[in-house]
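Morning F.,

Quick status update on the modeling queue. The single chain you submitted on Monday has been processed. Sequence for confirmation:
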Amino acid sequence: MRLKLVPPDTKWDFFKRWQLTFGASALAMVLSIVMFFAVGLNFGIDFLGGTTIRTESSQAVDVAAYRGAIAPLDLGDVTITQVFDASFDEDEHVAQIRIQQQEGHEAITPEVIEQIKTALQGVDSEIEFPSIESVGPKVSGELVWTAIEAVILAIAAVLFYIWLRFEWQFSLGAVAALVHDVTLTIGIFCLLQIRFDLTIIAALLTIVGYSLNDTVVVFDRVRENLRRYKKLDLKEVLNLSINETLSRTVMTSVTTLIALVSLYVLGGDVIRGFVFAMIWGVVVGTYSSIFVAAPILLRLGVKRDWSKPSQGGGTQFADVDA
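Structure tokens below.
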């Protein structure tokens, strides 16, 4: 027996209260922007600057013990990860400790570093410290702008791609959905004060790709149905297209969420922020492809006669009677 998360041949009206859902999305975006300026993100070491300490030992790395030893020093945001490399010997265990920039100092003072060493040597007497590096505020500031540029360029590339593949109305709807997803993700990170670092930027770019994939699937079906059903108005075509792709959309989202929730529960603290961003992105990305991108396309309208070459560069097709 095949598992069906969505009944076959659904005829749900997704535009019955589209003003309400679209208004809720717009309000959520405004609140996210307000949260960003009023509360701000909980930036990690990548964006605030800090110090990275590399450790080596013949004993296995105990992240919990390392964290417990450093916690009494009250150093703020501390990230501890075990480093794996095929070139390491069997008795070579490496860890990387990242400590946020201390207030009033360019880097952690030598005295504090000695305290960290002493605390860790209390856990593992054989531990060594082959390298200690600091990230200053100038470098972290450059990373902030590089991250912003990466997200903006990704969205601009999507705008150009959708414009070439479809029409400018489709591209505006798709980009609006992407901006919606990114803005709400930043808003939830401001609200919950989850650490925001370079891995979250990677998650944002992944969310852009996932949301785009959902939107393109719906838009492809819309384009096909616009050629097939010439007598249906645009609202009916959009409803029909979303219903026809709904089973695929829900199944893809649910299977992706199963893997992500497993990673969130079992993956440990290091990747938890990244996985949370992905879970949130899958949910809002699925929502926006239906309740943001499609209503914008409905309001903008779309040309039904595609027999002539497009001035906007989109691929055109002649109409076919239903």
